[in-house]
Amino acid sequence: NRKPLTLREDFGGTAALACDWVKQSPEHSACSVDLDPEPISYGKENHYSRLTKTEKERMEYIEGNVLSDYEMKSDIIVGFNFSYFIFKKRQQLLEYFKKVREGISDDGLFFVDIFGGEECMSPLEEETEHDGHDYFWDLDKFNAVTNEVLYYIHFRKHDDKIKYERVFTYDWRMWTIPEVREIMEEAGFSKTVVFWEGDDDDGEGDGNFYQTKLEENCESWVSYIVGLA
What we know:
By secondary structure, this protein is an alpha/beta fold. The protein contains five helices and twelve strands.
């Protein structure tokens, strides 16, 4: 029951999570790994810059590949925003999970998120209204043979009504929960558990997750898979 103190945020982008992590106490430290210098630069300007001097000393941006070898051992490693979906081949995902297992402490935890459901298998565009803009989540293509998908994110500003198409592109493979768990265990994790999101009164996700072994499929769902070292 040791308290986790070190975090590695894979595919960290702006490293918002890692920057929040080091705020917890003088003992907490974090690093964020990402290949793209653009979100790293944004994160340094908007997240890292707001940290205190001592917090900055415990937070590191690494412009690098999550498949590379890193000397430090972390109590917790996370791969969020479904970023590991970029690995379309089983061997690629296994290689990544092995690298994570090598980089995690002996009693550490590895967290990934995953989504699925019936809506993830057919072309669909969902529109969500926010302050100042509308957000579009667009499933453009789904290949039932390979489980490969092509998603886009579009935006429309309220002031000029201009729709900005394909601001972000996600060329992914939709992995399933049993696939991810099996590959984690093959990579050396001793055990995996699943946390499923609960429903609110309208049948939408309520942001609360509980451990489970049996669930029905639905139009869309989000879960966390945790690998125990």
